[in-house]
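Same chain as my last thread, 267 residues:
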Amino acid sequence: MIDQSDSYNISAKHYDASYATLKTLVDLPFYVDLAKKSAGPVLELACGTGRVLLPIAREGIEIHGVDNSAPMLDVLRSHLEKEPPQIRQRVTLHQADIRHFRTNKKFPLVIIPFRPMQHMLTLQDQISALTTAAAHLQENGILAFDVFYPKFELISASIGEEVFDLEWPANGSPTKTVRRYFKKESVDKIHQTFSGIFIFRTFEAEKLVHEETEPLKMSYYTYPHLQALFKIVGLEPIAEYGSFAKVPLDNSSDQMIFVLKRSKHSF
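reply #2:
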């Protein structure tokens, strides 16, 4: 297995500032509400810089976060250092691959927010990650995660073109702006993945002063594909939504959001 512990080195630096500008990113109340109803402890797989983990801890809930990226966890630890002791004490971090992570602890709630399942690129990766989640559920515990609803006309479009994505003020410099672009390089319809690069350009008074790049590869799912995965790993849906407002999943949906439990004959 390839060691990806230093992955997202560039993205980690920009992650919080960039996604703070994304007005369509409205998943936080959904996951925090699930955590409050569970009363904890919560297991978050692929916790990144703590965008979801920290608000849950601030609600008085114990939470364990797992991530394979050392740069992402370094950012999260820097955030934790600024939190009061009672919040820091509620957080346990594990640097591990979510496909293989195991602990003896069981949880009433496991979450995989903001599409980490789309970084599981092969069928075995997908089975392994969902098996990790299922294996850590208490009896009657639930798993919640989201992926985007595939729009096939967009997935196949703009190959080879740089597309402007997000813009935000550079950290510590009011005169500089960072702009993120994405250049899609290929689409694999057989394996349901696409590949490209993120381009991070820093501007000062519209003059380019710095540029960084980082590769990105993601998978995408159809609904029957996900249903088959659930059966393979012994999970069954108890709720399905097309948005974080909990509207029904249908042909107009942009998201596929699932709340699942272990099926009766699993594990």
